[in-house]
Structure formats: C-alpha cells, structure tokens
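Justification of computing resources. Each target in the renewal requires a structure prediction run like the one illustrated here; the chain below, 296 residues long, is used simply to show the kind of job we budget for.
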Amino acid sequence: MEPQNSYKRRPHWLKINLPRGVNFYQVDKLVKDKNLHTVCQSAHCPNIGECWSRRTATFMIMGDVCSRNCRFCAVTPGKPQPLNPDEPRLVAEAVRDLNLRYAVITSVTRDDLPDGGAEHFARTITAVRRAQPGYKIEVLIPDFQGSEKDLATVLAAKPDVLNHNIETVPRLYPLARPQANYARSLELLRRASEYDVFTKSGIMVGLGETLDEVREAMHDLLDANCQMLTIGQYLQPSRNHLPVDRFVTPEEFAQMRHNGLAMGFENVQSGPLVRSSYRADEQFITKEAFHEESTV
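Resulting structure tokens:
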C-alpha cells in the first residue's frame, strides 16, 4: 500500500455534485434543530447531496463518537457521551417530519455500554413505529461483541431489515478492523436469519483485497443466510486513514453484481458510490418483490 500521507487522484466516475437545493437545506436544518447525528455527515458519505435532496437521511444514534477505531472509518473514535434518553423520540419526529416511508437507523459502536446499546436501538425502532405506522425500518447495527441476547433485543422490536456490514475480506481485518471479528459478524447474520427479518450486509473494495477474496466473502455471507448485499468503493476519509489501494472500475462493479445475483443473493447493489444505506428503500422494494414471487 501507499504511504498514508498520500492520496490517489479520484477517477472521473467518482466525481460528485456539491450539496445544494431547498430539500438539502431543510434536512440540514431539521437535523441541527433536533441535535441529531447522521452517518451521512459523520462518515463523510459522498451521496449526502443526492440523498438529502431526496429528503432521505440515515440517522446515527448513540452519539457521534465511536468506542472503536476502525482505520477506514471517518467517525470520530474516543470516549462516547452518555445516551440521550430523548433520542428515540427525536429520531421518530424527524422521520415523521421528513415523511420517510423507509427509515434507516445506524449507530456508532458502544462497547462501553453493558448491552452495546441494544435497548436504545429497540426503543428507537418502537418510537419510529408509533410515529409512522406501517412504514419500513432498516437498522444497521454493530456486532454487540457477539452477544446473542443483545441481538435478540433489537430483533424483538421487529425491524424490517437487519443490516450488519462485514466491511472487508478476512485477511484485511487486522489492518482495517482490528477490534472486530469476521466470524463473529457472519454468526450475527446467521442468527438474525432465524427471525422474521430480511438480512443485509456490505463490503468495501479498493483496500487491497483480490477479486477471489471478494467472491469468497460473498459465499461466506450466503452461507450465513444473508439475502441482500451492497458493494462500494472505499474512499480515504483523511490522511490518517488507510490509503486507497486501487479504484475499482464501474465495469468491475457491474460484474460483481452479476456474480452476486448468480450466486443466490436476492438483491445486490454494486457501484463506486454505493453505500450500505444508499437507496435502501429501492433495494428493499426489489427484495420484497423477489420474496413474494418466490413464495407464489
């Protein structure tokens, strides 16, 4: 890999438009007024302009400081603040105000909490259900250090989609995710598949993995009964983060999507700017239609 103090120049297919428009600024104001956090901001998501212009946002609960320090992630590591007991209500109000028919809720990792924040997740899901009955909820959760009880707490609140990213191939975990465990993440997805919920995961590429390793990781996810998959380009958030090994071409992303569907995933979103929650509502609709057709 290149030295960490250097950036690769981004190719033309990764150029993005600057955020602007009435909807964008309305979402920005709403988030600020309610003192909420979004992964769109904290993770430096390249799609923030597009998504907020569509009046969609991914809410990040339990603060904006993470108890882990993954070397690919832009979220600030450190000592998190105490939980805000009003946050579930505030997130529910924001979902209602944006009229989100599909809400995506994620969080920082809270290894400092006895339950990893599982009950806070459950309370947020319940609050959103009450504010927007009948609307869909996707949660992108941490691994809860492998606790089956904490996972069950979240699933008991009945989200529609349980998302947990493996992020990269197992060989790169010591480099990119030293506090995480590949097998533990796969086991979380396998356990979740035993509940009445759609399961989803995501992989970054461009960190130094091989295409064979990506295919092996995809097979591992299928073996864990993961149904939906996102694949996107890793982008270096700062000079203190892991450098980009290479920029994967749009053609390669298209081939990975083709391969994933051929392997048996029910929905695959694969592209340079694809992220876990990017157009998640559309991915869910496609997945739900697939599920209905397969049961006819």
